[in-house]
From TrEMBL:
Top-level taxon of the source organism: Eukaryota
InterPro entries registered for this protein in UniProt: F-box_SCFL_complex_component (IPR053197)
Residues spanning the membrane: none
Protein name per UniProt: FBD domain-containing protein
Lineage: Eukaryota, Viridiplantae, Streptophyta, Embryophyta, Tracheophyta
């Protein structure tokens, strides 16, 4: 299978949609502001070329594509030091523990906004999504182990969309480790069985 190789080190914005060929980057892109990618567009290695992006939209990615088939190897995942906004749309978040989301929260210290749209847990047929109150109560009621909080201290806004008949337990557990003392006004709405939850952090 042929692969498209791009080499544009000064690229500022990239959007790949539709049914593109697999591609990779032959160089780093330190000036990248925004990248929007629809799977399948490349392998796990492509994330390393996007690690300087300020906004990253990933649509339809499997956990295997994002984790390179090594769900327990936290060292094999890029640091996104500049990432301010992350959107995962119809992506798999990984199995129990939502490893994909865990890694992004662990490796994006400057993250400010997080949007999860209909994201699923791998290998199970249910959708993971986090409801604001469930995130807090789940962490509090279950006596979660004292795991190190995520370093994204600038995170102030989270939005999640999911369908009412899908569970949010795993996602709630992961988000419960966000080091925020208080969630400001929590907004929720339901339309055609689809629930939207918005959380603002103090």
């Amino acid at each position: 299978m042929k692969q498209l190789v791009i080499e544009v080190p000064r690229l500022a914005s990239m959007r790949v949609a539709g049914n593109p060929p697999s591609f990779t980057s032959a160089c780093e892109m330190p000036y990248l502001v925004k990248a929007s990618l629809t799977h399948p567009v490349g392998d796990h290695g492509l994330l390393w070329s996007l690690r300087d992006a300020r906004r990253l939209d990933l649509i339809g990615f499997s956990a295997t594509a994002l984790l390179d088939g090594e769900p327990d190897d936290d060292d094999d995942f890029p640091m996104f030091h500049n990432l301010r906004a992350l959107l995962l749309d119809w992506c798999e978040l990984g199995r129990v523990g939502c490893r994909v989301l865990h890694r992004f929260l662990q490796n994006a210290p400057r993250l400010e906004t997080l949007t999860l749209l209909h994201c699923a847990v791998s290998s199970d047929d249910y959708y993971c999504s986090r409801s604001a109150k469930r995130v807090k109560t789940s962490a509090g009621d279950r006596h979660e182990p004292a795991a190190a909080p995520y370093p994204c201290e600038n995170l102030w806004y989270v939005e999640v969309q999911f369908y009412d008949d899908h569970t949010v337990v795993e996602l709630a557990k992961v988000l419960g480790h966000i080091s925020k003392e208080m969630a400001r006004p929590i907004e929720g709405s339901v339309l055609d069985g689809k629930r939207t939850v918005k959380i603002w952090y103090a």
